[in-house]
Amino acid sequence: MAGSKGQSETLDNESEITLGLLNAVHDNSSITQRSVASDLGIALGLTNAYLKRCIRKGFIKVQQIPSNRYAYYLTPQGFAEKTRLTAGYLAYSFTFFRRARQQCTESLDECERKGWHRIALAGASDLAEITTLCAGETSVQIIGIIDTGSNHSYFAGLPVVENHQNLEQFDAIILTNVSNPQDCFDHLTAVWPGDRIITPKLLGVSEKNHVLSREPS
């Protein structure tokens, strides 16, 4: 039930990597492919492939420098592409935040209507942080985050646990996993009643064919 970065509605992966590469070249012409791969969290071979593609498209020019090294520079076309991708990323970010805030508020309102006041989140993510902020305006108490793939022991001021049984008693779960929301939901329904798992619509989760009669453990 990992909840790391990522989202079913985001810039596509190709655009995100390209933007990261163009930003890296813009910031430092003497970068190495290995350092870019490390910064972007992708394989060295993939970095090389994207760099070649950017050079082929005219976004980046390369020049050999002493010690058999290379310097990379953004072309005017590359700068224009970086600007375009950045604008798209920012537009997505603001849109995501507005939608997320609205849907988190709706999820918390649903909890209040049903008398569920102690809530766990599933997934340490930006969505979890937004939900935590929204909860401050309600009577709902977020008691912790379930996330088997997180390296955090605390996130957004909340304890992060691998299993729902490691949390004190709670009433329901709000799904906040943005990297693999469907898998997370499917795993949760095996151990928790599906009618007590609230899934914001922006995650695009299908709730069909899940048994709702399991009692909370």
Structure in words:
It is a single chain. It contains 6 helices and 8 strands. It has 217 residues and is of the alpha/beta class. The strands form 2 sheets. The protein has a 6-stranded mixed beta sheet, with helices on both faces. A two-stranded antiparallel ribbon has the order 1-2. Strand 3 (118-122), helix 5 and strand 4 form a beta-alpha-beta unit. The two termini are 18 Å apart.
User: What structural class do you assign from the helix and strand content?
Assistant: alpha/beta
Instruction: Provide the domain count.
Output: 2
Mean pLDDT: 87
Shape: elongated
Beta-strand residue percentage:
15-25%
Q: Stretches where pLDDT falls below 50 for ≥5 residues? A: 1-11, 211-217
Largest sheet: 6 strands, mixed
CATH architecture of the largest domain: 3-Layer(aba) Sandwich
Strand order of the largest sheet: 5-6-4-3-7-8
Q: Briefly, what CATH class of the largest domain?
A: Alpha Beta
> Fraction of residues in helices?
40-55%
- Number of helical segments? 6
Radius of gyration, Cα only, in angstroms? 21 Å
Give the tally of β-strands.
8
What is the first-to-last residue Cα distance? 18 Å
What do we call the CATH homologous superfamily of the largest domain?
A: NAD(P)-binding Rossmann-like Domain
Order of helices and strands: HHHEEHEHEEEEHE
CATH level 3 topology of the largest domain: Rossmann fold
